[in-house]
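hey
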């Protein structure tokens, strides 16, 4: 069992399978000269499987596959099948921009994927293009509908709220929950990877978002699946739920239950710290055990973050 010096049980791994992405979102793709990792620097599928097996032996129960955009990784459904078959893994989910769900959704479901988080920051096709750099709103919307049709449960929709960009759409996005069994999750804008767009004037905190939502209808407390940091609510009579995630205005470090694995095989104890432990070298040189490195990460996991802007962009860390 992985219990850190502050009594937090670590049972959740977020694993980035690639730093590549077909979108260029304004809050993520900020390094103009960023170069993708060469293929040999990225963990192989069997290496990711080995990391998860060790994690599971130590008490990890939940795994989320992230990127970059994980669906650009070749044979991603094979990785899903490998992880889904590991003893001790009770929940396997994936975060995606949704663009390739039409092509891969059914394969992922058959392979054993249980849940999907889909990023969708606007319901306006023109604004979608401005935010992502891709004319893909209709395709992503079809991917969302397919995820629901295939029975992924729950389907969560992640919305990064940025003042002056999409904050006026909060109510419209939340209203998706009236007719669809989804959880729309509003996330405060975070200082990741030296983002030149980020400053405090662009933050819309979750208290402001909550007040906006309550102008339509009172919010009732609700439960959520997945053990994440969201405070979850629902409107009476709605088929879905609403989540509020507040890394800026209300730190949830005391409830942190996760480690992150970057695409190049670094174990990252905290999203907002650039301290990392090299698992890839251990995997390939066999000079130190992965179990030892997990325990090392446990010892250095900080009690809380300081919200310093990290050097790596989110696509390199794994969200």
């Amino acid at each position: 069992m992985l219990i850190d010096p502050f009594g937090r049980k670590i049972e959740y791994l977020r694993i980035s399978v690639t730093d590549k992405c077909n979108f260029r979102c304004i809050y993520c793709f900020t390094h103009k000269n960023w170069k993708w990792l060469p293929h040999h620097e990225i963990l192989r599928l069997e290496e990711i499987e080995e990391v998860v097996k060790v994690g599971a032996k130590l008490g990890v129960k939940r795994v989320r596959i992230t990127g970059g955009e994980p669906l650009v990784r070749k044979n991603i459904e094979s990785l899903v099948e490998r992880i889904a078959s590991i003893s001790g893994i009770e929940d396997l989910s994936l975060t995606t921009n949704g663009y390739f769900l039409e092509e891969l959704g059914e394969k992922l479901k058959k392979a054993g994927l249980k849940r999907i988080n889909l990023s969708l920051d606007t319901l306006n096709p023109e604004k979608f293009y401005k935010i992502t750099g891709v004319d893909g709103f209709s395709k992503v919307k079809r991917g969302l509908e397919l995820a629901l049709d295939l029975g992924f449960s729950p389907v969560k929709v992640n919305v990064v709220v940025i003042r002056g960009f999409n904050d006026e759409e909060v109510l419209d996005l939340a209203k998706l929950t009236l007719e669809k069994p989804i959880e729309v999750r509003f996330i405060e804008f975070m200082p990741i990877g030296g983002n030149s767009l980020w400053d405090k004037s662009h933050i819309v905190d979750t208290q402001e978002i909550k007040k906006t939502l309550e102008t339509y209808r009172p919010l009732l407390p609700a439960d959520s699946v997945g053990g994440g940091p969201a405070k979850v609510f629902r409107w009476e009579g709605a088929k879905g739920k609403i989540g509020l995630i507040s890394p800026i205005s209300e730190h949830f470090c005391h409830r942190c239950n996760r480690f992150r694995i970057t695409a190049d095989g670094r174990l990252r104890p905290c999203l907002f710290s650039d301290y990392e432990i090299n698992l890839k070298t251990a995997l390939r040189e066999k000079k130190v055990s992965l179990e030892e490195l997990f325990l090392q990460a446990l010892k250095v996991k900080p009690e809380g973050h300081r919200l310093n802007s990290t050097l790596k962009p989110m696509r390199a860390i794994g969200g």
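The CA atoms of residues 169 and 298 lie 40 Å apart. DSSP finds eleven helices and twelve strands in the chain.
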